[in-house]
Write a structure and sequence with these properties.
It contains four helices and six strands. With about 120 residues, it is of the alpha+beta class. The protein has one domain. β5 and β6 form a beta hairpin. α2 runs antiparallel to α4.
Length: about 120
């Protein structure tokens, strides 16, 4: 099934993501964004995800973060695999499971400020 990605992008609700969620080391920020997503689900009864839209070149150039029902996001990803699109929806999104894993990493690991390597926090 081919989806009209341009139309979906134009109709999507933009969300402000001032700090890259993947790179963030702030547990408070991650919890805040997760809460916004869960509040939306509670109000609507629909599971939403934060999708990442970008241009294929330059690689990784994010043009918008948007809210999408999870089913729609899965369909967009499937459609893009089957049909080449110039406006790209990432092949992943931020959902409840992603936030759960991210919070766990932030609570259990630290980063060496010099090398950037991940270090297991000492458990008391």
């Amino acid at each position: 099934m081919k989806m009209d990605c341009k139309k979906l992008y134009n109709n999507a609700v933009r969300i402000n993501i001032p700090e890259d969620l993947r790179a963030s080391k702030s547990l408070d920020y991650i919890i805040q964004k997760e809460k916004e997503l869960l509040d939306l689900e509670k109000r609507t009864g629909i599971e939403y995800v934060i999708g990442v839209w970008g241009n294929p070149l330059p690689r990784g150039h994010v043009i918008a973060y948007c809210l999408h029902p999870k089913k729609e996001a899965d369909d967009i990803i499937k459609s893009q695999k089957e049909n080449k699109e110039s406006l790209m929806f990432g092949s992943w999104y931020f959902d409840k499971e992603w936030f759960k894993r991210k919070k766990e990493r932030l609570q259990n690991y630290d980063w060496d400020p010099i090398t950037g390597q991940v270090i297991l926090k000492k458990v008391a």
